Predict the structure.
Amino acid sequence: MWVIYTLNGLYFAALLFLTSLGLNIILGVMGILNLAHGSLYAIGAFMAAWTIIQIVAKAPPFVLYLSLLSGLVLAGIVGFLMEKSLIRAMYKRTLEYQLLLTFGALLLLEDVIKMIWGGQAYYASAPFELMGNVDILGHVYPTYFLFVMLITLLAGLFVWFFMGRTKLGIMLRAISLDREMATGLGLDIGRLSTFAFVLGSGLAGLAGALVVPTTPALLGIGMEPLILAFIVVVVGGLGSLKGALVGALLVGFTRSFGIAIIPEIELPLLFMIAGIILVVKPQGLFGR
Amino acid sequence: MLTIDNLKKHFGFVRAVDNVNMDIREGEIVSIIGTNGAGKTTLVNLISGYIKPDSGRILFFDKDITYASPYIRIKLGVGRSFQLIQLFGNITVLDNVRTALFSKYGMIRRGLLPADRYSSVTDEAIKILDNFNMSDKKDLTPTGLSEGDLKILDIAVAFALKSKLLLLDEPTSGVATNDKFKVMDSIVSAIKKEGISTLIIEHDMDIVSGYSDRVIVMHEGKIMAEGKPNEVMENKEVKATVFGIVS
Amino acid sequence: MVKNPRWVAYVLIFIILLFIPRLLSIYHLMLFEYGLTFAIVGLGFNLLLGYTGLLSFGHGAYFAVGAYTVGMIAKYFPGAYSLEILIPAALLFSLIISIIFGFLCVRHTKIFFSILALSLSMLLYALLFKLYHLTGGSDGLRVPLPTLLGISFKGIRRPEFLSGTYYYFLLVLFAISCVIMRGIVSSPFGKALQAIRDNEVRAELIGIRVRRYRLYAFIISGMFVGLGGALWSFVNGHVTADLSHWVFSGEIVYMTLLGGFGILEGPIIGAILFTYLKLYAMGNTQYWMFVIGATLIVLVLLLPNGVAGAIASLLAKIKRKTVKGTPC
C-alpha cells in the first residue's frame, strides 16, 4: 500500500505545486498576496469541466485532454482583467488595501462563477476513465494521476527554464529582487507585472482544470487549495521555486499518509508541522 | 566613555569599517568627516546597534556593548538621529518626542492613564521642542512640516532619550543653507546644556570647524587623521583625499 | 476644552440607546444587537489594525473561541451556564489562544504575519469541524438562554430575553469596552503602538520593544473579539465552525475598513453598517457576495479612510472653510 500512498502524495503535491507556484510568482514579482487565487483555480475547474461535458460525446480523446487547457486560458484571461483593473490601483497602496481588494475580488468572482455556471456540480470524468489504469509494482493505479504529474513536471520545467534562461524571465526575477532598481534599469514594470499575474493565474487555472476529471467542480472548490497554497508558501519560503516544490511535496505527502492513517487529523497535522517549521525557521525553509 | 577597539565590518569585499580605534570623552563634540563610502554611517550603525560587527569591541562606560541589542544600548544611554529622516508620520510632533520620553521612563508598560494626563512628561516634551524652536508646531503631524523642521524633529526625538552619547548622522543635510547654522546653534546649545557627548557625521566643513572639539577623518574604512579642526584641515593627506586639493 | 463636547455626545448616545428596545421591532432589535457585538469585535480588531498596523485575516479564530466557550459550557457544564461565569471564561480562553497564536505570528513581517494568522484560524476551523464528537462538527452547538446572577429565564423565549435583560447587559458591556479601548489608545502604550505602526525601526531605536508590544496588542484584540463572539452567540442561538473560517475573518476586516480604521469610532459605525448591508444584500439577491465584494472594492478605491474617515475629512474641510484666515 505504501506505493499507492507515495503515488497519491506525488499527485497531491503536483496539483499543489502548480497552485503555489502561481501564487509565489505573483507574490515574488509583484509583492501582492492574491486572496482570489483560489477563485482562479475554481474558474479553471469550471471552464474545463464545462468544456469536457459539452464535447465528450463528439470529440476524440485527444481533444478532451486538450480541453483541459481551456481552464488555463480562461483563468489567464480573468487574471489579465483583474490585473488591469484592480491590481494596478494597488501598487501605490499598502498591504492592507491589496488584501482587501483581492478579498473583494474573491467574493465577487465566487458569485460570478455562480452566475455563469449555476450552483450545480459538474462531473467531467471522461479523461480519467479514458486513460484507464496502469500496473505499478503490482498495484493498479489510475493512469490519469500519472498524466497530471507529467503535466506538472512539464509546467515546472517550463517555468524553471523560463525564469532562468529567457530574457523575460530574468527581467521578472530582477523585479522580484528589487523593484526600484529594476525601474532604474528601464524595465517596463507595468507590462511585466501584468505578464507575471497572468502566468500565475494561468497556473492556478491549470491546476483547477487538471483536478476536475477526479473531483466534480463545485462552488467553493478553490477554498481549500488556496489555504494549502498559503501553507506551502509559508513553509517553503516566499518567492522561492525550490521552496514551492519542497513545500508542495511535504504537504502532499502529509495529506496522503495522513488521510490513510487517521483521516480527521490530516489538516491539523499539516498546520502543526507548518507551525513547527516556522518556529524554527521563521522565513520558511528556503525563504529570503 | 566610548571606546572602540579594532572594529571591523566587511560587506563581502567592501571593507566598510576596517580596524577602527576611537575614544570619545565625556562632554566632547566630535565630528567624523570623509568621502562618501568612507564608512561613517556604518560606524554609527555599529555603535547604535543597528548592525553587528565582524570583530572588535565597543565599550560604553566600560560595558561591552558590541553585540548588545539596540534596546539595551538605548537604556544605557546611546541615542541617534538619522540621515534619511525616520519619524512617526501619523502622530503629532509632540507625540513623536513624548513617546520617546515615555519609552525612556519605562512608562509604556506601566502607564494606565491617557497620555495627556502625564503633565510632567508632556511639559518636558514641550520644553525640548522649545529648545529646538518647534513648540509652536507641536500639534501638527510630520506630513505638514518642511525638510528642515523634519530634520530638527528627528534630532529632537533622539535628544529626548536623554542619552549620554548622541550620534547625529548628517544633521544638516536637506536643510536650506541659510538655516544650517540656526539648526546647529539650537542643537549644540541644547547638547552643551546637558553635557551630552556627541558624534556628528558631517560633510559641511564650516559646520564641522564651527562646532567640534575634535575631528576624525575616515577614508575607506580606516581612520586617516584626527585632532583639532584646524590641525586636521592643514593635514596634507586629508586635503588631498577629502578636499581634492593637491599642493 | 475639546474633550467635553465628545463626552457629552457619548453620554447622550448612551441614553438614547437605553430606549432602543422600545423603539425597534424584535427583528430590528436583534439586528442591532448583532451590530453591537460586532462593534465590540471591531473595536478590538482595530487596535491591531489601525493602531498597531498589523492586518490579520484570522481573527475569526478568537470570535469562535468566545462563541464555542459558551457552546461547550452549555453542553458539558450546564451547571455553570450563567453569564457571570460565561463571560470571564470566554475572555480567559480568548486570552490563552491569542497568546499562543500571537506568539507565533508576531515574529513575522507583514505578509507572513497575515498568512500565518489566516492559517492558524483555519487550523482551529479544521479542529472544530473534524472533532465533531466534541464540537458538533458542521452542525455546531446550540446556545440556550443563560442565567444571570441566579435569575433564570426558563419559560421565556429568546426574543423576549433579547429585548429585555440581555439588551441592557450587552449595552453595558459595549459601553465598558468603548471606555477601556479609549483608555488604551490614548495611553502611553497606545502611543507606542502607533509609533510601531508608523516606523518600526525608529520605534526600536527609541527603546520600544516592538515584538513584545505587538504581542500585547494582539492579545488585547483577541480578547475583545472573543468577548464579541461570546455575546454574539446568545443572539444567534447557535455556533458553527465557520466562525473560524478566514472568510468570516475577512468580514471582520471589511467592517473595520468600512467604518474607517483611522478613528476609534470607525469600527463601531462599520460594524453596524455592515450588519445591515449584508442582511439587505442577502435578503434581496442570491448573489449577495457579488454585492458585498463589489461594495468592498469600490470602498477601497474611493473611500480608503472608510465612512467615518470620509465624514471626518468632510467635517474638517467644512471647518477650514468657515474659519477665516487659517494658514494652509
Q: What stands out?
A: Residues 2-280 of chain A form a domain with the ABC transporter involved in vitamin B12 uptake, BtuC fold (CATH 1.10.3470). The longest helix of chain A spans residues 2-30. Chain A has a mean pLDDT of 84.
